[in-house]
């Protein structure tokens, strides 16, 4: 393999590794800069596969994240993107998948599994990933085909008073082919709503000292009734989020609910499905 291709593949695996560890795309260069003690410019070139990787550098990154060096040096086709179909809610969404190790049913419960069937990769949640006699592989990443997607130019507003959370969701949506804007308060979200037309919304349920209900009501009054609105929350255990309140909002305003922590490929798939069927 040519050295340039080798360096690009290592960079891709480092990005995938950081994704799995919850490091957003915009924070990855900074993280690599600190781990390898490089300047931001050097780290940026290395993340883009434009600067050669040394074995000690690969080992240092792998060790930092608790991985083996071989997981970043694997140059087989297993880690390359393949055309695939994501099975969600009875829909089939075209995408590309990076397949990891074979899943033997033990260890950490994976988010998605991929199965090779009839010369095509099919992706399922682990609870639906075919029978035990099928060879299943852990999904490392899912990439949606934005060139063919009906959602290519769709604008999504993300509202969360936790800046890191809003930025992270927006980053993933942008990678998935949308144009996402993060807002960190109901005030800025309302100002944007009065000036821009969004095709969908992703809202945290608890926004500062209030819930998102009044904002959802304004969205429904100012947009089409079918505009997708996704409600996120992870605060049931703290008591700040009450199941009855969320159930009432779901029924009253036709919104979708997804519990935190959010599985971003699943959120992207659900938004894509909603927009495709408008």
- The low-confidence parts are none
Structural class computed from helices and strand pairing: alpha/beta
How far apart, in Å, are the first and last alpha carbons? Answer: 46 Å
CATH domain class name of the largest domain: Alpha Beta
Number of domains: 3
Beta-strand percent range? 15-25%
What does this structure look like?
The chain is α/β, with parallel strands linked by helices. The protein has 3 domains: 3-75, Orthogonal Bundle (434 Repressor (Amino-terminal Domain)), CATH 1.10.260; 78-144, no CATH class; 155-276, Response regulator (Rossmann fold, 3-Layer(aba) Sandwich), CATH 3.40.50.2300. It is built from 10 helices and 12 strands. It has helices at residues 3-20, 25-36, 40-47, 55-64, 69-73, 163-175, 186-195, 213-222, 243-253, 264-276; strands at residues 82-88, 91-102, 113-117, 120-124, 136-144, 155-159, 179-183, 200-204, 206-207, 210-211, 229-233, 256-259. The strands form 3 sheets. It has a 5-stranded mixed β-barrel. It has a 5-stranded parallel sheet with strand order 7-6-8-11-12. It has a two-stranded antiparallel ribbon with strand order 9-10. Helix 2 (25-36) crosses helix 3 (40-47) and helix 7 packs parallel to helix 8 (213-222). The longest helix has 18 residues, at 3-20.
């Amino acid at each position: 393999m040519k050295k340039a291709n080798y360096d690009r593949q290592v960079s891709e695996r480092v990005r995938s590794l950081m994704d799995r560890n919850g490091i957003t795309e915009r924070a990855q260069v900074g993280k690599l800069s600190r781990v390898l003690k490089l300047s931001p410019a050097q780290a940026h070139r290395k993340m883009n596969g434009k600067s050669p990787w040394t074995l000690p550098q690969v080992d240092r990154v792998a060790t930092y994240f608790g991985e083996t060096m071989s997981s970043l040096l694997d140059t087989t086709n297993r880690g390359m993107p393949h055309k695939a179909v994501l099975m969600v809610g009875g829909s089939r969404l075209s995408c590309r998948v990076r397949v990891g190790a074979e899943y033997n049913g033990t260890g950490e419960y994976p988010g998605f599994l991929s199965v090779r069937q009839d010369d095509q990769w099919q992706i399922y949640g682990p609870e639906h990933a075919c029978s035990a006699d099928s060879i299943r592989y852990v999904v490392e990443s899912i990439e949606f085909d934005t060139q063919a997607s009906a959602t290519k130019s769709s604008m999504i507003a993300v509202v969360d008073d936790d800046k890191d959370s809003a930025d992270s969701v927006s980053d993933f949506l942008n990678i998935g082919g949308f144009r996402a804007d993060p807002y960190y308060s109901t005030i800025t979200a309302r100002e944007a709503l009065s000036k821009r037309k969004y095709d969908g919304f992703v809202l945290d349920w608890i926004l500062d000292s209030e819930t998102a209900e009044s904002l959802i009501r304004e969205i429904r009054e100012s947009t089409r009734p079918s505009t997708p609105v996704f409600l996120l929350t992870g605060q049931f255990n703290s008591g700040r989020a009450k199941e009855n309140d969320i159930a009432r909002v779901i029924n009253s305003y036709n919104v979708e609910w997804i519990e935190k922590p959010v599985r971003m490929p699943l959120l992207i798939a659900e938004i894509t499905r909603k927009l495709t069927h408008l």
